[in-house]
Structures are given as C-alpha cells and as structure tokens.
C-alpha cells in the first residue's frame, strides 16, 4: 500500500510510520518539523518537509497514495488560546487542503486524527460519539471543524473517510522539553530530576490516557475497515478508563521510585474536568480494542524517558 502520514515526524505519527514500514508499505511523510523531529522519521520512509497549510506541497505528497493518515496539526489548548489564528490555519485550512488533494488524486481513504476536546465538558461520561459537541477552546473548535469536513467529504465525493477522536495519547517519543508538553512527560521529567511536578487545578480532574501503540492499531484498523461500517463516521479511541492526575502522579512515582510532592497552581483556561470515552463503536465497526493498560504504558514510558535523558 502507498500511504501518506501527515505529521509523521511527530510523536504519534512517527510510530504509525514505523508500523506501516514494518508491514512493507511504501510511506511518505509530510511534516514541517515545527514540532516533530527529523530523527523520528523512519529511514525507509520518504520525508517531504512542508506544512499541511501549503496546498501545493500537500498535492505533491498525496499524489499516488491509496490511504492518507492526516495527523499533522498544531496541538495544545494553551497554544490555541494564545494564538488562535495559527491553530486555525494549520488545523482547519490544512485539513481542507488534505481532503481536497485526496479527492482530486482519487485516494481511497483518509483517516483523520480528531480529538476528545470536541466534546468539551461532556455531561455523559463515559462519552459516546453521539454526545453533544461543545468545544471549549480554539484548538477544540479547529478539531471539530476538521472532524466535520472529513465526514462531509465522504457524503459529497467519492472519497472514504474515517475520523478517530483521540483521548490523551502517551508513550515513547512524547517529549518533556516541547513548548506545550503533555502532562505525563512533564510529571515524569520533574520526578526524575527530583523536582516538584506542577499540577494545574486540584488534581482530581481525570483523563482517558491511551497508549500510543493502541492509537497506531486504531489507525491501521480504520484504514481497512469495511466502508459500509466506517466511512463517514467518527470513532472514539481510548480504553474507557478515566485516571485522575493524582492517581497518575502516584503511578509514576511508584515506577520511578520517588515520593511525590506536587505544586498546585491555577487551572488552565479551556481545560475540562473529566474526560472518558465510550469506545464501543470502534470495537464494533473497526474491530479495535486497546491492549496496553495505563500501568504497563507508564512503565514503558518511564523506561523510555530514562534512556532518552541518560547522560
């Protein structure tokens, strides 16, 4: 299979590229390296260094591909609150560039990386895909817009599309030194440096942490699931097991072998208190289910970050 992975130099995208290459697929990566790393890109993949906001570069990258995995985006709620225009340019215009190029190039299927942020502070928890969509940040709005564009393209054109709504993905290659680093890398790095981890809020807020290998498996399943079941639909990708930040701190502390003494600061604007998925639809339509527990995933991440920061 000829595949394109936008954002393939990033945390999740590079793991997906590795899995595709391991299957024997021919893989292109489109990434501007603004947040991804060249060293993440599998040497057997072809890197096109450009932004998804560059329509000409997107058309070049898409040409001849059977499946496009669109993971390229500017993440972070905080970044989007600070600079909503750039988040919109990359996440909305970039997604429309990918979808239009895929339609024009007769791509079979586009798999789009959406986000649990589209639900906002959902009242129904665990949250199914049918829950009201109430984004609470510019980032969430950009993901919801891309989500809808992707599904509508399947209705209007001869293009199969699948939307995957990720819930707090974590694992190796998730960097603690990134400008808008996620909570697990920040907590782990602080503990390894014998520093106090910083908790925004009171720590009782929960997230549905999903190991990166399970997200890769969901993408592969989405690429090949029967169109009648999958195309034009959105699917939650998560274990359906909420973990509070306090529980997360305890889990990391026990694996690192330190006592945890966090510093509590004000909540971040746009954050939700509780997030947990109902992933029944992904099991039924895609044949996907997570296999890595939060405990095993944290152990793997601690092993990786220790090796990555050694010396």
Structure description:
The model has no long low-confidence stretch (mean pLDDT 95). It is globular, with a radius of gyration of 18 Å. The chain has a domain at 2-170 and 209-239: Rossmann fold. Helix 2 (55-62) runs parallel beside helix 4. The strands form 4 sheets. It has a 7-stranded parallel beta sheet with strand order 3-2-1-4-5-6-11, sandwiched between helices. With 311 residues, the chain is α/β, with parallel strands linked by helices. The longest helix is centred in the first third of the chain and has 21 residues, at 84-104. 41% of the residues lie in helices and 17% in strands.
Largest sheet features: 7 strands, parallel
Proportion of strand residues? 15-25%
Average pLDDT metric: 95
Largest sheet, order of strands side by side? 3-2-1-4-5-6-11
What would CATH call the homologous superfamily of the domain at 2-170 and 209-239?
Answer: NAD(P)-binding Rossmann-like Domain
- Give the fraction of residues assigned to helices: 40-55%
Count of helical regions: 11
Q: Based on DSSP secondary structure assignment, what is the total number of beta strands?
A: 13
Radius of gyration: 18 Å
CATH architecture of the domain at 2-170 and 209-239: 3-Layer(aba) Sandwich
Structural class computed from helices and strand pairing: alpha/beta
According to CATH, the fold-level topology of the domain at 2-170 and 209-239 is: Rossmann fold
Global morphology: globular
Between the first and last Cα atoms, what is the distance in angstroms? 40 Å
